[in-house]
Design brief:
Blueprint: H1 35-47, H2 53-64, H3 69-81, H4 88-100, H5 104-117, H6 122-130, E1 141-145, E2 154-160, E3 163-168, E4 189-193, E5 204-206, E6 217-222, E7 228-234, E8 251-259, E9 262-268, E10 278-283, E11 289-294, E12 304-309, E13 320-321, E14 332-337, E15 343-347, E16 357-361, E17 374-375, E18 386-391, E19 398-402, E20 412-418, E21 428-435, E22 446-451, E23 456-461, E24 467-469, E25 478-484, E26 491-496, E27 503-505, E28 508-510, H7 523-527, H8 543-558, E29 563-569, H9 576-596, E30 604-610, H10 626-630, E31 635-641
Helix pairs in contact: 1-2, 1-8, 2-3, 3-4, 4-5, 5-6
Subcellular location: Cell outer membrane
Keywords: Cell outer membrane, Membrane, Signal, TPR repeat
Domain OmpA-like: 521-642
């Protein structure tokens, strides 16, 4: 899922990731400026020699939580090369990213390290139990583009009255289009494709104006009689404010009734709540149980699968967690119950091929429990995100969603059927490069093909509509594609293609250099450069201080119209006069360092504030810990003009 991020949250307390997962956490480095701009600043800082393990991990996280695992691998690898201590979670993330580039042995090494460092974590335990196991290759199935994909995101299929209902962020010509700040795409709605034949999808229509609101709707499921729908919708920012003063929006499950030829009586289900998410409903075969994903209190990991019983009077039981057989410390989501009563779901906590993978747990006889989950293997899974498994009512075909290479949009829906004999031929590379913000094709973009050993094979240039086509077949099954264009950020990805496929379609979008910087914002908070490290009672710029200030230097170079006021603060453990003088000298030294690096002094003001603006009660004479005092020793870089 290749996402753009405007104004900041990798934290999905909204329907931010097109409701693809429930929680993807980050830190304050990504909470004030446009996400891809933050990435660009960090990458430029690395290019200028100001890279640190902390920055490498931030860059790795930025790409990891946008499901760009090959790029995450690049930055995690740099962090690991420094041999600086990292938390066990980074061993897990690095292992996942290694799978995406085919380094399975090294991935297993880091998963083993993860299991040793975090011995009680079920992800490590499952890895140890399944070491040496292979993932099944289901040769009897074939996946094909479902024929309903766009350059936007499509996923989450269901069947209603013989038609296919699915989630999409495509623009709806009949409604005012709202753009999601996080994805830079239209809000998601439910759409309907009239009965799909073997080779040709039907006309795509907006599902219903009552169910599709001004908010995000997704992942519907219907009763067999077509009279009841359960679906996901995000709330309208009515929750409590977070620490940045932003009202949180959460995912919730709703129910609607189809009567007299129209949908009405849309209600929110009672097991939703404030401060957590509920999403992606699925019905049992007898329609007496509703399964869903949630990060509600009591969740084992980042999101778990729960079930409620639907009573005959229409009430619901309390949600029950499916337990450690199904749920891990990672993400479990997108449940689906098959005709046999088995549970299919997506997870990145169970051992898999990388990213979210699809798993199945067989229903145990005699009760509502499930067996241990196993991977669906290929072609259902890849080393990218694979999720949202559903089957047609007759069981002859089914659908999954994936952001694997070769798709048309951010997420694509694939139809699976039993494989028939095929004749293979050369693989032709075709596709389109578009502007992510406008959707228009980018003329003159260059697509370069590299072998798996990173030897250049050839370059292709897009036409006036952003289209390109290779004149020669690609013989490699593993290769890299680099896409670049003037005034756009370069993109590079690793691919592993089916050797028997006749073509390889690579559509992608590039991000232009657009920014959102506001007067009064503190760049220190945005980029975590509050603490400029000085030696005790000194004001000379140290090597550690330069590592932090390098980020600030890049920002000022990238934004030549931005002016700053540098503010320096101390704690209270000296006289007021001494602290005021020391902070003034440190602010001045910071300004002088930037001027020596080429920043005009006219763009900078500085001010020493000493202990006049303490952030806590650690005043003179108050007993405080070193950690409490350190909160007050900080620098601020306030944008005074842009």
């Amino acid at each position: 899922m290749k996402k753009n991020y405007l104004l900041a949250l990798l934290l999905i307390t909204t329907a931010a990731m097109s409701q693809k997962t429930l929680l993807k956490k980050t830190d304050s480095a990504f909470e004030n400026l446009a996400y891809m701009d933050v990435v660009k600043i960090y990458e430029k800082a690395v290019q200028k020699g100001y890279g640190t393990p902390e920055i490498y991990l931030k860059l790795g996280d930025a790409y990891y939580f946008n499901a760009d695992y090959p790029m995450a691998n690049k930055w995690y690898a740099k962090a690991m090369e420094t041999e600086s201590p990292v938390s066990p979670e980074y061993c897990f993330r690095y292992a996942q990213s290694l799978k995406s580039v085919g380094e399975l042995q090294k991935a297993n090494e880091y998963l083993k390290k993860f299991s040793e460092l975090k011995s009680g974590d079920s992800r490590g335990i499952r890895f140890n139990e399944q070491t040496g196991a292979s993932f099944s290759n289901h040769d009897e199935y074939i996946l094909k583009d479902a024929g309903i994909n766009t350059e936007y995101s499509e996923y989450g299929t269901a069947f209603w009255n013989g038609n296919l209902v699915f989630t999409s962020s495509r623009k709806d010509q009949n409604r005012t289009t709202q753009i999601h700040q996080w994805t830079n795409q239209p809000f998601t709605d439910l759409f309907l494709s009239e009965a799909i034949t073997e080779n040709q999808p039907g006309t795509v229509l907006n599902f219903d104006a009552v169910i599709n609101s001004k908010l995000n709707e997704s992942t519907a499921v219907f009763t067999k009689d077509g009279a009841t729908a359960y679906f996901t919708r995000n709330s309208s920012n009515e929750g409590k404010k977070d620490r940045n003063g932003t009202k949180n929006s959460y995912l919730r499950i709703y129910k609607a009734t189809f009567r007299n030829g129209k949908w009405d009586n849309t209600i929110e289900l009672p097991f939703n709540g404030s401060g957590f998410n509920c999403a992606h409903p699925a019905l049992s075969g007898d329609e007496n149980k509703l399964y869903f994903a949630s990060d509600r209190p009591g969740t084992l990991g980042q999101s778990d699968i729960y079930v409620v019983t639907i009573h005959e009077n229409g009430t619901y039981s309390d949600p029950v967690n499916l337990g450690k057989t199904i749920n891990t410390e990672g993400r479990e989501s997108f449940p689906y119950i098959t005709r046999n009563g088995d549970l299919c779901f997506a997870s990145d906590g169970h051992p898999g091929m990388g990213g979210l993978d699809l798993f199945k747990a067989v229903k145990n006889t005699g009760d509502d429990s499930f067996s241990d989950a196993f991977s669906l293997g290929t072609p259902f899974n890849s080393n990218h995100d694979d999720f949202a498994y559903t089957e047609a009512p007759d069981g002859k075909c089914g659908y999954i969603a994936s952001n694997r290479p070769g798709g048309k949009g951010y997420d694509d829906i694939y139809r699976f059927t039993k494989k028939t004999d095929t004749n293979s031929s050369g693989k032709q590379l075709t596709g389109q490069i578009t502007n992510r913000e406008t959707g228009r094709g980018i003329s003159g973009a260059v697509v370069t093909v590299f072998s798996k050993d990173y030897e250049k094979i050839r370059s292709l240039t897009t036409d006036e509509k952003g289209n390109y086509q290779d004149s020669a077949a690609i013989s490699e099954t593993e290769f890299f594609l680099r896409t670049e264009a003037r005034e756009y950020q370069t993109q590079e990805q690793y691919f592993h293609s089916d050797k028997d496929s006749e073509s390889f379609i690579y559509n992608t979008t590039l991000i232009g250099t657009h920014y959102n910087i506001e007067t009064g914002k503190d760049l220190a908070k945005a980029f975590e450069i509050e603490n400029i490290y000085f030696d005790l009672d000194k004001w000379e710029i140290t090597k550690r201080a330069e590592e932090k200030l390098g980020i600030l230097l890049v920002i000022l170079q990238e934004f030549p119209t931005v002016n700053l006021e540098i503010r320096s603060h101390t704690d209270s453990r000296a006289s007021e006069t001494y602290n005021l003088t020391l902070s003034e000298k440190r602010a001045s030294a910071t300004s002088e360092w930037l001027v020596k690096k080429g920043i005009s002094g006219k763009r900078l003001r500085y001010k020493g504030l000493g202990e006049t603006q303490l952030l806590n009660n650690c005043k003179t004479g108050t007993q405080c810990s070193e950690e409490e005092h350190s909160i007050n020793r900080r620098s601020e870089f306030i944008i005074t003009s842009k």
